[in-house]
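Researcher: Here's a chain I'd like modeled. Treat it as a single chain, no partners, no ligands.
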Amino acid sequence: MGNWRSRHRDPAVTGRVRLPWSAEDPCPCGAGRLYGNCCGKLRQSPYKQIVEFRPPGAPTEYSHPRCYMGWTRDCSRTISSEHFISENVLSILNSESVRISGAAWIPTGESLDLPLAGLQANILCTRHNSAFSPFDTMAGKLFRAVDGIYDDLSRRTLSRKSMWHLFSGEELELWLLKTVLGFFHANVLPQNGRKIAEGQEIMNPAIEAAYRTGYLADPCGMYVQKNATTLVQRRVLDFTSLSDERGERVVGCQLRIGGITTRFIIDPGMTDRDLFMPLSRH
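Model: Modeled as a single isolated chain. Structure tokens:
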């Protein structure tokens, strides 16, 4: 039978698709290897291995007080200025600035245009920031591909050439986890007039396990929402923190970007998704 992850990659479950890549083609993941030696190793379907995202070498045994990964005791002694939404994703929306609302320091009902540099916070040490950078790169490639698809669909032509992309859903989930942690620790989300970190918790064993293994426990993960009645707004970024029914801890987020709305669950105890409550919006 296999576990739930292997079943989700089984063509008997997902359906069979005629893929354009042969074993001797360059792998579309961009790793610089042949497809047959890279993401095409499995017979069932392509599978991109998760990139290494833990800092290299022996642990430093140092916990930086301003790094939200300090619990790993593998920090550098220098803090970085980290975008809590990846800069290469923000730049797809607008190369210079982005309009935000709902932040803890913006009056209710108002919005503000901020330069991309204004969406930074000192929340990761340089060691962890560097280690997590492949997730930012992957997310940028994904949303750039989505943006390109919209451009292609908007062209009025009868000529349609197939375009194929290969991404890792597991890496995207880890990027979303990084994004949720970034928003939380940057203290930009409000709850009842206070910064959300002052009234809620976010860490749980599933997050620690995701860092150690690269995988989120079932039913945690990303769920893409489909709503045919919603007008696609390509240049809109909307982030909503999701809380448990008591409002005591962050259990996930809803992110709308590039016309895609996803709900991301980071707490395996939240099996009843009707209990999710939107608390704050960016």
